[in-house]
Amino acid sequence: MNEMPRTQIETLSFPRLIAGTNWFLGYSHQTASRSKFIKELQSRETLADILEVFFAAGCNSVYGIHPGAPHLNHAIQDAEQRTGRACVRIGIPSFDLAGTAAAKDANLRTLDAFREIRCDLLMPHQCTTDALVDRQRRTIREMDVFIPAIRERGMVPGLSTHMPETPMYADEMKLDIGTYIQIYNAAGFLMQIEIDWVQRMIWGCQKPVITIKPLAAGRLEPLVGLAFVWATLRPIDMVTVGCMTADEAREVIEISMALLEHRLPNLTLQETRSKASMKAAR
To answer: Is residue 22, in this structure, part of any structural domain at all?
Structure first.
């Protein structure tokens, strides 16, 4: 299997397939019991095993690092040591928007904390970004505060958003950022407008786009969800996918490579009794 193709965000080289962390940290987007199960399942050791698979295949980037998740940060270091691949770290912190002196100090401490865990690309989380979007004036407020503060700490700034118009406004404002996040999947899960509209807006972006939730938080089978995103994104754009096990990581990587290379995935299919006749015929 060839290595995953790469793209560029400013000086940072990114694999087009990025390891997500919702299935690491317990954000299932399904039920409280499923989220609880994830948190209880994932340890430093299990996360390192999953990330080793990603890094070995050239997918050496993690989306969603956090100072409050030391087991994840240690797992990244373990996978780096095992594979000899340096991880490109993406942080998506939330910020206090109260505007008080205390809030501003807390936000600077947050930025410092992400710098300390070696964050490369820092993107204010959707709960921060979208609260600052002004649709009437087609602007994103307070970027003159956040973006320079991120740059001063040696990180590349971006914007994480659930609003498809946010990248358009960022481009119109000529914001000094390297990329943006967009939700993008064949089910339209958590997307605010029709899928074809979001695709058109992604293709109109002036910067590479990092897409998230390609499998609609487990609602789409990997072949279905990945076939859609790889077929409809630009060569400069990225896909972020979360996995619960190392075997799942191997599957999504192989499916992605097969789709990009226009070949059949080299995977063992799941078997049930209902497929016995088809297996015998082959």
So the answer is: yes
Supply the pTM of this predicted model: 0.92
- Mean pLDDT score across all residues of the chain: 93
Instruction: Render the burial of 62-81: b for 16+ CB within 10 Å, e for the rest.
Output: bbbbbbebebbbebbebbbe
Asked if 259 and 227 touch (Cβ cutoff 8 Å), the reply is yes
Does a structural domain hold residue 199?
Answer: yes
Structural domain includes residue 1: no
- Residue 225 resides in a domain: yes
Q: Residue 53 sits in a domain of what CATH number?
A: 3.20.20.100
Q: How many domains is the chain partitioned into structurally?
A: 1
CA dist 48 and 136 (Å) reads: 45
pLDDT, residue 7, reads: 98
Looking at residue 41, its pLDDT comes to 77
Domain extent for 264: 6-281
- pLDDT tens profile 191-210: 999 999 999 999 999 999 99
Burial 229-242 (b: 16+ CB within 10 A, else e): bbebbeeebbbbbb
Non-local (6+) Cβ contacts of 79 within 8 A are 48, 51, 52, 54, 55, 85, 87
Low-confidence spans in the chain with pLDDT less than 50: none
